[in-house]
UniProtKB/TrEMBL annotation:
<dbReference type="Pfam" id="PF00342">
    <property type="entry name" value="PGI"/>
</dbReference>
<dbReference type="InterPro" id="IPR046348">
    <property type="entry name" value="SIS_dom_sf"/>
</dbReference>
<dbReference type="GO" id="GO:0006094">
    <property type="term" value="P:gluconeogenesis"/>
</dbReference>
<dbReference type="GO" id="GO:0006096">
    <property type="term" value="P:glycolytic process"/>
</dbReference>
<dbReference type="InterPro" id="IPR035482">
    <property type="entry name" value="SIS_PGI_2"/>
</dbReference>
<dbReference type="InterPro" id="IPR035476">
    <property type="entry name" value="SIS_PGI_1"/>
</dbReference>
<dbReference type="GO" id="GO:0004347">
    <property type="term" value="F:glucose-6-phosphate isomerase activity"/>
</dbReference>
<keyword id="KW-0312">Gluconeogenesis</keyword>
<keyword id="KW-0963">Cytoplasm</keyword>
<dbReference type="InterPro" id="IPR018189">
    <property type="entry name" value="Phosphoglucose_isomerase_CS"/>
</dbReference>
<keyword id="KW-0413">Isomerase</keyword>
<dbReference type="GO" id="GO:0051156">
    <property type="term" value="P:glucose 6-phosphate metabolic process"/>
</dbReference>
<keyword id="KW-0324">Glycolysis</keyword>
<dbReference type="GO" id="GO:0005829">
    <property type="term" value="C:cytosol"/>
</dbReference>
<dbReference type="GO" id="GO:0048029">
    <property type="term" value="F:monosaccharide binding"/>
</dbReference>
<dbReference type="InterPro" id="IPR001672">
    <property type="entry name" value="G6P_Isomerase"/>
</dbReference>
<dbReference type="GO" id="GO:0097367">
    <property type="term" value="F:carbohydrate derivative binding"/>
</dbReference>
Length: 506
């Protein structure tokens, strides 16, 4: 297929479209009776077990999907990504977040230069700094140990680290390393969030990490100023040097903000914001909290999955298969079952995904007896996908004596697709595998559909519009007038803005 043509014009796409009719004739409850099929729809890599037999798919579908991947050039595109080609074409950048977790001796080139030594220079800097803070060698201005960390950042500069923090917060080794320490995140620019993030913290014992790739994001910079004021009003100007560090690609802006660039941890424009969790963005706050060795295992898990993605044939490649079967829907534990599963059962088909671990991070004991919470959770992990796939028919309900008026309400057509992913346990390493698998899955889907998964012009538009609102509101305020359509807003926005501005001045 020519590089510029649409995948939907290819014969492989059309073959898949033709196949849809045959798939529509199938029922998952019957497909699940076919042992050969279910066996053909299971893969494992590095202990990550993926069962996609509850997809509305057969081995023929898989064959067609793999042919589509071939037509879309997924294999060569994967190699191009790892090889440092500028596949983020709309920003003219390489996509090398995989280099962030490459082993020290690896060679990954951007424009002919090996980036791995600079990656490890920053990792060494993070290790040294976080060990000094955790060991009490780096203390606050009043000599107190810095046991609380507030990470200020938004979007990719917050969500990945927050996810990892949540996942590791009950893992025994990570927990032991975090004993006596606190980590919180401040992302949203709502004043309420600043109050919540700082509530109960002792400024003398708090280290603030400002995380911003660009160091220009309006919300983050405002929150950074708020937190800086919170520190300096209590501890004086000298607090900035001891209580504030930064993570950014823009070291000039870090310095202009007042943070010594020596206390900044860099990364590179070949790391997209959404793919930055394994850069200093995640590594600084999380190593402060959980220790560098724990977080190094996270990087090793990611690297293991990177290697699998780079080397495994597509038919056995977990992220690539997930990318071809791309679906996403989620909620922890059985929460989903008690909230939106009714919608999945009886509303429009919503493909779902179940992720579980063989061994729980924690056991709960009552009166010396181990409570079977994990078994309970796992029963649901096995039952819910079948409930969605197989449903319940009216004949069975009538045979059970269900009153006729309730039969339509208790009938579930089934045939709702899902994926099941089973990990041995959830620790820093397996979490790394999981996150890397999802990163590469997104890349694969983009490779097939011809979409650049790495640029962010859409979110840039929102940023530009927010800037426009800010400057027009300031202009109107200082001129003592209302905002009008002449300011470039539509009638609805003009009304909303003026209502807000008037109410503010009352
Ligand atoms: O608006 C999207 C985005 O640019 C993300 O890519 C990024 O993670 C987030 O905003 C925050 O940007 P920054 O890290 O530059 O503050």
């Amino acid at each position: 297929m020519a590089a510029s043509s649409l995948i939907s014009d290819s014969k492989e796409w059309r073959a898949l479209q033709d196949h849809v009719g045959a798939i529509k004739q199938t029922q998952l409850r019957e497909l699940l009776e076919d042992d050969a099929r279910t066996e053909a729809m299971v893969r494992e890599a590095g202990g990550v077990y993926l069962d996609f037999s509850r997809q509305n798919a057969t081995p023929d579908t898989l064959k067609l999907l793999l042919e589509l991947a071939g037509a879309a050039g997924v294999g060569p595109k994967i190699q191009a990504m790892f090889g440092g080609a500028h596949i983020n074409s709309t920003e003219g950048r390489a996509v090398l977040h995989t280099a962030l977790r490459a082993p020290r001796g690896a060679v990954v080139e951007d424009g002919g230069a090996n980036v791995v030594p600079e990656v490890w220079a920053v990792l060494d800097q993070i290790k040294a700094f976080t060990e000094r803070v955790r060991g009490g060698e780096w203390v606050g201005v009043t000599g107190k140990r810095l046991t609380s960390v507030v990470s200020v950042g938004i979007g990719g500069s917050a969500l990945g680290p927050l996810f990892v923090h949540t996942a590791l917060s009950t893992e025994p080794e990570a927990m032991a390393q975090a004993a006596g320490r606190q980590l919180s995140f401040l992302a949203n620019v709502d004043p309420v969030d600043a109050v919540r993030a700082l509530r109960g913290l002792d400024p003398e014992a708090t280290l603030v990490v400002i995380v911003s790739k660009t160091f220009t994001t309006a919300e983050t910079m405002l929150n950074a100023r708020t937190v800086r004021a919170w520190l300096t009003e209590r501890l004086g100007q000298a607090a900035v040097a001891k209580h504030m560090v930064a993570v950014s690609t823009n070291l000039k802006a870090v310095e202009a903000f007042g943070i010594d660039p020596a206390n900044a941890f860099g990364f590179w424009d070949w790391v997209g914001g959404r793919f930055s969790v394994s850069s200093a963005v995640g590594m600084v706050p999380l190593s402060l909290h959980y220790s560098f060795p724990v977080m190094e295992r996270f990087l090793q898990g990611m690297h293991a999955m990177d290697d699998h993605f780079r080397t495994a044939p597509l038919q056995d490649n977990l992220p690539a298969l997930l990318g071809l079967l791309n679906i996403d829907f989620g909620e922890p534990g059985t929460n989903g079952q008690h909230s939106f599963y009714q919608l999945i059962h009886q509303g429009r088909t919503i493909p779902a995904e179940f992720i579980a671990v063989v061994r729980s991070q924690q056991d709960v004991y009552l009166g010396g007896e181990k409570v079977s919470s994990h078994e309970e959770l796992m029963c649901n992990f096995f039952a819910q996908p079948d409930a969605l796939a197989c449903g319940k028919d009216s004949g069975t309900l009538r045979a059970e004596g269900v009153p006729e008026h309730l039969v339509p309400h208790k009938t579930f057509t089934g045939n709702r697709p899902s994926l099941s992913i089973l990990l041995p346990e959830l620790n820093a390493y397996t979490l790394g595998q999981l996150l890397s698998m999802y990163e590469h899955r997104v890349a694969t889907s983009g490779f097939v559909w011809g979409i650049n998964s790495f640029d962010q012009w859409g979110v840039e538009l929102g940023k530009v519009l927010a800037n426009k609102v800010r400057s027009k509101v300031q202009e109107a305020r200082s001129a003592g007038r209302q905002v009008s359509k002449a300011d470039g807003f539509n009638a609805s926005t003009v009304r909303l803005l003026n209502r807000f501005l008037e109410a503010k001045t009352q």
